[in-house]
Design goal:
The chain is about 25% helix and about 35% strand. By secondary structure, the protein is an alpha+beta fold. The protein has one domain (about 5-170): 3-Layer(aba) Sandwich (Aminopeptidase), CATH 3.40.630. Strand 4 (about 75-85) and strand 5 form a beta hairpin. Helix 1 (about 20-30) packs antiparallel against helix 2 (about 45-55). It is globular and about 40 Å long.
Length: about 170
């Protein structure tokens, strides 16, 4: 397997999934506060199946969510990355940052978000990224704005839920 590390900031490491990441990632996606603006807690069996599939080949997907580790503690504190999305019939790449409550309010989402934007533009050849944000999710909107993203429009997703589309382009 190639190096486990995807990118590193002064405080954070984004890496391919290891078996040790699975329990904290399951806890993250089962937390009602963390998933409040993302459709609520996920089914335990579905999570276990998805993480087991990822563990079988952690580097299989070009765009995925990867475990976010706090370097000082070694703890898995989030699930962040880039995902393929379709918005209004157009293919997009979504920047996603999901952090455990213990990591909220410490600038970590903006730190990993900025690193992911640089990685997407400089190493992956993307010219544009979006963030799909639930209209009541003010903390996530603040992160998007801090990252230099701008509000483009509001859309209705296939599940019928409204989302605000924030975007950043390489020239921004």
């Amino acid at each position: 397997m190639p190096s486990c590390e995807i990118l590193r900031t002064p405080r954070l490491l984004l890496r391919y999934q290891t078996p040790a990441d699975i329990p904290p990632l399951i806890a993250l996606w089962r937390d009602p506060d963390v998933t409040r603006f993302m459709g609520g807690p996920r089914d335990l069996h579905a999570l276990q199946t998805a993480f087991d599939e990822t563990q079988a080949n952690p580097t299989a997907e070009t765009h995925d969510l990867w475990p976010l580790v706090e370097i000082s503690s070694g703890q898995t504190i989030g699930h962040c990355g880039l995902l393929d999305k379709e918005v209004d019939g157009q293919p997009e790449i979504e920047l996603v940052y999901v952090l455990a409550k213990s990591a909220w309010g410490k600038g970590r989402a903006a730190e990993i978000g900025a690193a992911l934007i640089s990685h997407a533009f400089e190493n992956m050849g993307h010219a544009r990224l979006i963030a799909l944000i639930e209209p009541d999710n003010e903390p996530s909107e603040r992160v998007a704005l801090r990252l230099g993203m701008r509000l483009e429009k509001e859309v209705i997703r296939p599940n019928g839920e409204p989302r605000r589309v924030y975007a950043i382009e390489m020239k921004d």
